[in-house]
Amino acid sequence: MIKLKDILSEGLSKNKVQAIVDKVFPQIVQDRGEGKQGVPKIKLHHDIYARLSGIEDMRGEESDSTKAQWVDEHNTIFIYYTNMKNEEDVIRSVLHEFEHTHQDTKKNEKYREQGYDNNPYEIAARNAEKNWKQYATIDEIDYHSKLSRGHKPDWYQLGTSEFKPFDENAVTNHDGKAAPYGSGYDEVEENFADGKKPGRKGISKRVGIPKGATLTQLAKLAKAKGEKGRMARWQLNMRRGRKKKR
């Protein structure tokens, strides 16, 4: 018979944990900055012993207590989703391990001799967790708008060959997924074509990118900082993508 306490202790599903990570991590990276090895990947796993041994059903004495772990060898944060009871658990785990990515691994080897409670790096990581509430209030719609319309790419793509910024308005007759730059879809000059946000209309013109700019001009403008550079790179990738497609 299933008991109530078992139901209450089941925690979050793997998909829910992933959704929370996808929602909060881009903002955490933006606020904190990249780690010493760049932006880490985040992977979900069901058990630390199973991951380390390669044996799917392997369990150990810390299986139920290990929530997350940063592995510096390949700059990856592992979230053990079976131990995530709620959103707070997930956000705290991400903040804690991401703090470790900013620390010196050689110094940490020495600090470990002081024990977990007295390790300065662990203290810093636990303090980082205290900001979890500010990320629990992130609006998911705002998050998705940052991944499209020429803003920052998805967190796992930063600094990798998978870098593919998105513009979900690049085409109207596709499968509904955001179109990667350079895909051959027609570019749009206005991100808010419905005119409901007049303050954001005409981004290219507003940031100083001339209409009908040549590839040479765009290449020079792409070196600019901020939104001007992002828009120039977007247009450059779009133009090169269409030319290659032909």
Overview of the structural elements:
The chain is mainly alpha-helical. Helix content is 43%, strand content 7%. The chain has helices spanning 4-8, 14-32, 48-53, 87-100, 105-111, 120-129, 132-136, 140-147, 203-207, 215-221, 226-245; strands at residues 41-45, 68-71, 76-80, 166-167, 179-180. The strands form two sheets. Strands 1-3-2 form a three-stranded mixed sheet, covered by helices on one side. A two-stranded antiparallel sheet has the order 4-5. A hairpin with a 4-residue loop joins strand 2 and strand 3 (76-80). The chain is elongated, with a radius of gyration of 22 Å.
Strand content is 5-15%
Rg calc: 22 Å
- Biggest sheet descriptor: 3 strands, mixed
Instruction: Strand order, main sheet: write it out.
Output: 1-3-2
Shape: elongated
Share of helix, binned: 40-55%
> Residue ranges: pLDDT <50 for 5 or more in a row?
1-9, 141-201
Written as H for each helix and E for each strand, in order along the chain, the element string is HHEHEEHHHHHEEHHH
First-residue to last-residue Cα separation = 64 Å
The whole-number mean of residue pLDDT values reads 75
User: Which structural class do the helices and strands define?
Assistant: mainly alpha
The beta-strand count equals 5
Q: Specify the number of helices.
A: 11
